[in-house]
Design brief:
- With about 450 residues, this protein is an alpha/beta fold.
- It folds into three domains: about 160 residues, NAD(P)-binding Rossmann-like Domain (Rossmann fold, 3-Layer(aba) Sandwich); about 160 residues, 2-Layer Sandwich (Dihydrodipicolinate Reductase, domain 2), CATH 3.30.360; about 80 residues, ACT domain (Alpha-Beta Plaits), CATH 3.30.70.
- Helices cover about 35% and strands about 25% of the residues.
- The chain contains 14 helices and 17 strands.
- Strands 7, 8, 9, 10, 11, 12, 13, 14, 15, 16 and 17 form an eleven-stranded mixed β-sheet that branches. Strands 3-2-1-4-5-6 form a six-stranded parallel β-sheet, with helices on both faces.
Length: about 450
Amino acid sequence: MKTGWCWRKDESVNNFKTTVGLLGCGHVGAGVARMLLVDRNFIREKMGWPLELLKIAVRNPAASRPFDFPVDLFTTDPYEIVGNKDIQVVAELIGGIELTRELVLAALRSGQHVVTANKALLAHHGREIFAVAAKNKVEVMFEAAVAGGIPIIRVMKEGLSANRIRHLFGILNGTSNYILTRMSREGLDFKTALEEAQQIGYAESDPTLDVEGQDAAHKLILLTALAYGTLPDLNNIHIEGITALTPEDIEFARELGYVVKLLAISARDETDGRLEVRLHPAMLPKTHLLAEVCGSTNAVLVSGHAVGDILLNGAGAGMMPTASSVLGDLMEVARTSRQGSAPRVPSLGWFTLNDEIPRSMSETRTTYYLRFTVADRPGVLAAIASLFAEYGISLAQVIQKSAVDSHSVPLVILTHLAQERDLKAALKVVDKLPAVTAPTRLIRVETRL
């Protein structure tokens, strides 16, 4: 007895196909092309009709690639794909912003659906791109743009559409998470952990976008749009990377019962309804759902008013995990194309985007870890506590270690809830005290589960 997918015998279905063109055949593009070619029978069984790859636009058809492809698939002219009436779906996998923007907009205006893995493009030009797609009644799908192989976009857009999102936390950059894991487990400094990540291929030769937080910030903007119906401007969110973190601070965090993660936060304040969108290193309790997300893994924790907390984690990058997300989008677009209808769900899950500006970082209220380097003499803690009190900041916990040299000691303080503006103002005064011998180290503490 034959088992598996069964489809009604229908000549119109048997003759139907969805045609695809790829812009780019790099790391991810090669994985997508391979799946379209090698898994075409499997895809046809699942959908009932084939996804047919017609063309791949590349700069150099003769370049070395991880798989062999038929040479007649390649073209050096992207406009053999964009605007080609024989191609229904364009998969944009070349990266970059300005040229890619032109190609994507041209495809949408010609009535082609677009699937992309380009978070930077959507973070910078998403409003324009989604508006053009809506006007032309075509899809923009971008599952692969956030967290690689984790299906967070579809979950947010459809599975959680009935929920008011209370908050969303993400570990959205595998390079940074790997580095922090090595610093935490092995006591490595940032430079050594980064070099190790580069040697095994987890970090680029120029890792700036990853370790300074820009890559994760682009993803955070898209998740915020899905959660709250607004695409924040990059200039309106706080972005802070991991380059200033030290093994000493990570060890103090461990003693206090915390781990340090590069945390993306998008949340609706329960008291005044304001939106917070920020990305920075944060201390999480060891019991937090994200605390054990280690190595190059990505994860997203979403809290909805009806569903409660859900956690999705998995490969945040890599050829085949990311290609899996691209192919899933291609299959979904093919179903819409087969129906001959407008997108059944808006690209961002909302019919309109609002112009809400997130709360400024200076207005944010949280708790703080502070490490002072101070002279080893009586009265220093009292002086710092007194100055903090003038700014309305109270101390929750204090750790004082023995001298690191003959003159200074580390003094660690956890504060109660405080406003960032007040804390920064207090630190400007405290750091000028004669007893404070180095700039204060600051890490924000996140306790929401």
